[in-house]
Write a structure and sequence with these properties.
This protein is α+β, with helices and mostly antiparallel strands. Helix content is 19%, strand content 28%. Helix 4 runs antiparallel to helix 5.
C-alpha cells in the first residue's frame, strides 16, 4: 500500500478527449422553414441577466412543444426527440452548435427515445403512426409502421390515440414502451422490427415516464394511474404499488445513489421518494398547486435538478437533507400557451455539471449552472496523491459519488515528489488533511472516511460486513498480484537486486501471465466478486445502489483493462458478466461521468 508509484500510469486518461472528432458546423444555418435562426445569421449565444443561466440559439415554432425527451449519445452530443418540430436536433454542448436532421410532418409525433448499443436511437410513438429508428452515425432512419389497431382512439370523440409516454432500452436489446393511453406494455425488437404486447391496463394517461433499476425491473411513474407499476421484463410480471389519487401527479424520475427513486412533481404538491426494495415511499416538500416540473435528472454532486414546465423557477433538490434551492429562469408565457411559460420538456446533465434544458415553447435552449452545494456540513478536505489513478482513485470516486467537496491535490512525480517525500507522513502518499490539520495516511482509512461522509458506508451492521468483505477480497487480489508488479522495479524487496534487469522483467511477465490464466489467482478473485453481485441480485455488491465496495473495485478493473502491463490481457475481466455490467453502470452515474470528464471507461 506504499505510495503506488506506478510511473506507467503517468498519463491521466481522464483528459484524453478525442480532439479528432469533427464538429458539424452546418447547423448554424437552418434551412427549414419552420425554424429560424436569429436574424438569419449564425446562431447566437447570449448570457441571461439571471445568474447561472445562458440562452443558446433561437428556435421558433408557433404551436410550441418543439421536442420531447432528449438523450446523450456516445460522442457527447445530445439528441432531441421531435414532438411538434419537424426535425431531430443534434446538439454539441462544447461548441454550442447544432444540426437539424429530417423533415417529419405532424404534431405530437414521438414522446421519447432510447439509445441502443448498435449505434441507433429508437423513438417511441405518441401520436405518430410509426416507430422511428435513427442511425446517428449516418444520419439516416427507418420508419416502422405500428399496428393499425393502435391508432384507434379509446375515446370515441378523439381523432387519434396518444399511445406511449416514454421508453427504455432493456438488457436484451429490446425497447420497452410505457403505456399512456395504450392498453398494454410493448416490448419492441429494433433488430427484427417486431414487438410483443404484455398485460392489459385500462385507463388514460396512466404513466408518464419510467426508470430502469439495476436489477432489470422498470418503474412506471404514475400520472393519472393511482399506482406505481413495477415491471419485471425477464418474467414479464408486474406489481402495482400504492394508491395515489389525482391526475398529472408526477412526471419523470431519477435513480438516487442509495437505490431510491425521486419523482418530480408536476401537479402533485410534493415530490415522492420511493424505495423499490421495500416498496415504501415518502412525500417530501410542499410546492403548491398547478403545473410545475416535467422531469428531473441527477447532478454529479448527488442533488437532483427539476425541469421547469410552468414553474417560474428551476429547483435543485438535495435528497440527503430534503432541502432545495430555487433559481428563477425569467421566461414568460408564450403565444402558444396561455397557462404558463411551458419552458422545457426534459434536460441533460453535461459532464461538467451544467444542465441543458430541451425547449418546449420558449425559443432558446437554456444552459444552467447549478448553484454550489451547501458545503457547510463538510469540513475542508484536501486529498494529496500522485497525478495517476493508482491507489488513490477509490478515494476520489467515493468523494465524487457521495457529493463531498474536497481539494484534489495531484502531485507530479518527476518534478515534485523528490522534494515533497521527506515532508509527508511515513514518506508516502496518499495523505489527507482535514481543516488544515495534520496529515493522515493510509488509503483504506481515507476511503472509509469519504464513504461515511457521502453516505456510501452502510449503517446496517450486516451490510457493513458485506462491504468490508468486498474490500478484503480486493486486497487479497492485490497481494497476489503485487510481487509480479514489484519484482523488476524493487528487486531489493525480494533479495534479487543482483539479477539482471532484463531477466527480472521476463520473470515478472511470466508471473503475470500465470496469474491471468484460467484458474489463476486473478481469475479466482474476479469470480468471487462476480458471484457476490449475482447473489445480491440488484446489479451492485450490497443493497440497491453503489457503495464503498464499487468505489474500491472499479479502479481495480480499470487498471486490469488498460492493457499496459505485459502479461495482463485487457479482456481479463470480460467473461465475468456481472462485474462488467456493474462496471459500465457505475461509469454511467452522473457523478462518475463528471469525474472522468465524459471519457468512456477502458
Amino acid at each position: 500500500n506504499n505510495d503506488n508509484n506506478d510511473n506507467n500510469d503517468n498519463n491521466d486518461n481522464n483528459d484524453n478527449k478525442d480532439n479528432n472528432d469533427s464538429k458539424d458546423n452546418n447547423d448554424n444555418t437552418d434551412n427549414n422553414d419552420n425554424i429560424n435562426d436569429k436574424n438569419g445569421k449564425e446562431a447566437t449565444t447570449t448570457s441571461a441577466a439571471l445568474d447561472g443561466l445562458e440562452n443558446v440559439g433561437y428556435f421558433e415554432l408557433e404551436n410550441g412543444f418543439k421536442w420531447s425527451k432528449c438523450a446523450r449519445l456516445p460522442d457527447g452530443k445530445i439528441i432531441f426527440t421531435p414532438f411538434n418540430h419537424p426535425s431531430i436536433l443534434l446538439f454539441e454542448p462544447e461548441t454550442k452548435t447544432w444540426e437539424m436532421v429530417g423533415d417529419f410532418q405532424g404534431d405530437c409525433k414521438w414522446s421519447g427515445c432510447a439509445v441502443m448499443p448498435t449505434g441507433k436511437v429508437v423513438f417511441v410513438p405518441q401520436y405518430a403512426s410509426t416507430i422511428l429508428i435513427f442511425d446517428y452515425g449516418t444520419k439516416t432512419w427507418e420508419e416502422v409502421p405500428v399496428d393499425p389497431a393502435w391508432q384507434v382512439p379509446t375515446d370515441p370523440n378523439a381523432k387519434a390515440q396518444p399511445k406511449f409516454s416514454d421508453c427504455v432500452a432493456l438488457w436484451d436489446g429490446r425497447v420497452l414502451f410505457v403505456p399512456y393511453y395504450h392498453s398494454s406494455i410493448v416490448l419492441f425488437d429494433p433488430t427484427t422490427k417486431t414487438w410483443e404486447e404484455v398485460g392489459k391496463f385500462e385507463g388514460s394517461a396512466k404513466w408518464n415516464g419510467c426508470k430502469m433499476l439495476p436489477d432489470g425491473r422498470v418503474v412506471f411513474i404514475p400520472f393519472a394511474s393511482s399506482s406505481i407499476l413495477l415491471f419485471d421484463s425477464r418474467s414479464k410480471s408486474w406489481e402495482m404499488v400504492g394508491n395515489f389519487p389525482g391526475s398529472f401527479k408526477w412526471s419523470g424520475s431519477e435513480l438516487l445513489p442509495d437505490g431510491r427513486l425521486l419523482f418530480a412533481p408536476l401537479k402533485n404538491s410534493s415530490a415522492l421518494l420511493f424505495s423499490p426494495d421495500d416498496k415504501s415511499w415518502e412525500e417530501v416538500g410542499n410546492f403548491g398547486d398547478g403545473m410545475k416540473w416535467n422531469g428531473c435528472k441527477l447532478l454529479p454532486d448527488g442533488r437532483v435538478v427539476f425541469v421547469p414546465f410552468d414553474s417560474p423557477s428551476i429547483v435543485v433538490f438535495d435528497p440527503q437533507n430534503r432541502t432545495w434551492q430555487s433559481r428563477p429562469h425569467g421566461k414568460m408565457g408564450s403565444s402558444a400557451h396561455h397557462s404558463g411559460p411551458r419552458v422545457a420538456t426534459d434536460c441533460a446533465v453535461l459532464p461538467d455539471g451544467r444542465v441543458l434544458f430541451v425547449p418546449c415553447s420558449v425559443k432558446e435552449i437554456i444552459m444552467f449552472t447549478p448553484p454550489p452545494k451547501d458545503s457547510s456540513k463538510f469540513p475542508s478536505i484536501k486529498f494529496t496523491y500522485f497525478n495517476v489513478e493508482g491507489g488513490g482513485e477509490c478515494v476520489r470516486l467515493a468523494f465524487a459519488l457521495g457529493g463531498v467537496p474536497y481539494i484534489d491535490d495531484r502531485v507530479d512525480m518527476p518534478t515534485q515528489w523528490k522534494d515533497m517525500k521527506p515532508k509527508t507522513k511515513f514518506t508516502q502518499l496518499p495523505v489527507l488533511t482535514i481543516d488544515g490539520g495534520e496529515q493522515i495516511a493510509q488509503s483504506g482509512g481515507h476511503l472509509r472516511y469519504a464513504a461515511m461522509l457521502g453516505g456510501l458506508y452502510p449503517k446496517d451492521p450486516v451490510e457493513m460486513l458485506k462491504v468490508e468483505e468486498v474490500f478484503g477480497l480486493s486486497w487479497d487480489m492485490v497481494n497476489a498480484i503485487t510481487p509480479s508488479m514489484q519484482l523488476d522495479r524493487r528487486p531489493q524487496l525480494y533479495g534479487c537486486e543482483a539479477q539482471p534487469q532484463e531477466e527480472l522483467t521476463q520473470i515478472a511477465v511470466g508471473m503475470r501471465q500465470k496469474l491471468s490464466m484460467k484458474g489463476g489467482e486473478i481469475d479466482r478473485f474476479l469470480g468471487y466478486l462476480d458471484g457476490l453481485i449475482a447473489k445480491n441480485g440488484t446489479g451492485w455488491f450490497v443493497g440497491n445502489g453503489p457503495t464503498m465496495a464499487e468505489c474500491e473495485i472499479v479502479p481495480r478493473i480499470r487498471s486490469l483493462r488498460k492493457g499496459n502491463r505485459d502479461g495482463f490481457p485487457p479482456d481479463i475481466v470480460d467473461k465475468h458478466v456481472n462485474l462488467m455490467k456493474m462496471y459500465f453502470a457505475f461509469h454511467e452515474l452522473p457523478a462518475i461521468k463528471a469525474h472522468y470528464k465524459g471519457v468512456p471507461p477502458y
